[in-house]
Amino acid sequence: MSLLNMTRLKKVAEFFGLVQKQVIVLDNQPDWSQLPYDILLHVFRYLSNSDKYHAALTCKSWLRPLSVPSLWQSGDFNFNSKNDEKAIRFVKISGKTLRHINVECRANDYSVLGYERSASCTELLYQFLANLVNSRNRQILTFKLTNLCSLKINGIREQSRSFSEVSHLLGQVLYDQQQLRLLDLSNSQKSVKHRGNACFTVDEGMRLLNAASKNCANTLQKLTIARFVSLKDLSFLPQLRSAIAGFSKLSDLDLSYGYLEDDLLLSLANTTTSLKVITVRVDKPPNFESSTTPEAWENLTAACPELRVIFFIKPTTESYFQDTTLMLTPSMPLYQVKWKSSSVIAIENLEEFFQHLGQKFQETLHHLYLQTDVRLDMECIDAMFKGLQPCTNLDTLSLGLTCEMSDDEEMYTRVIRDVMTRCPLSCDVTLNCQAVK
Known about the structure:
alpha/beta; 13-stranded mixed beta sheet; two-stranded antiparallel sheet; 15 helices; 15 strands
């Protein structure tokens, strides 16, 4: 066992005041191998799965708690052609006891691993899900399966599983659940970067959401489906709207900007009163204009008075965002904006953006984060602060500005301080994570 793990174990045990009274002291040093079983079991609950495993290698007495099923309630797995088979073995042994499952798929690194693989990634993921189904686990609380778009669908062997078979088995896992509170299926949408790789068709995606809603319509609280299915056209939106509305206790919804539409907001207003957060992610221009109206937001806010909207704007191309204000509909309870833009965006658009925030969201906006490669002059920063002055509830203004020259950051700091004396804001201002006062 590493010194780090030993130190962590000691600190946890001492925190509960359970060690010094129970261990046998030899040569003025506690004999940690004599820790009572109940105390070891209690301490092991606070260790990661990896730390539990290494702690169990210390001695026979520390190995005993390892066989207690309740210790293995969380599993974090990376399907990256390196740890997949380890994840399969873990679920085969402990799948019944898991309550929290986090599976992140990552692109294969064949330059390191070579091509001598016995099975494709889809085959291994299929085996992982099959073991989970066979465990008859009905009590998973959180289930995350993210970044499927990075998974290779063409295996080395001809007998590799098709992605539709993986999708079908995943649907069975979700259908079996009865207490699911969090479901994250983000980043399964096919991208240019991972062309030809795994992704859900619209029909498969809707079947997965409907499978989860069969027994968990009244338990699911958070649903994350950003970049879930392709935004080719509007035809899938009614299906998506119906699937989301099936979760009546939803409090947190995380989705792509292209999925937003008036009918979805109205459907949510009619089916839930518990919605507290909508997170909208803008990363690529859709092929159609997805729009919402102030009236739809007013209806939803009336039904869910605690609702907050968070926008993450990180476009892969700037051409669509010449007028970023079109995405931020008046009457939306906009609480936080994080915008990362490249040098393609014009300074005039930045100034319009801040004016729009100050005019339309002066009561709701609390946090604003801007990261840009655009070189801002005093006039632009002045317009920024003037635009935000009406936002009396603003708590945070965080600026991430590119500094090409060694004295750029010092120059920006001086300019911001000067502007703050003329256009004071009632919030904390940071420049590249450093407070400006």
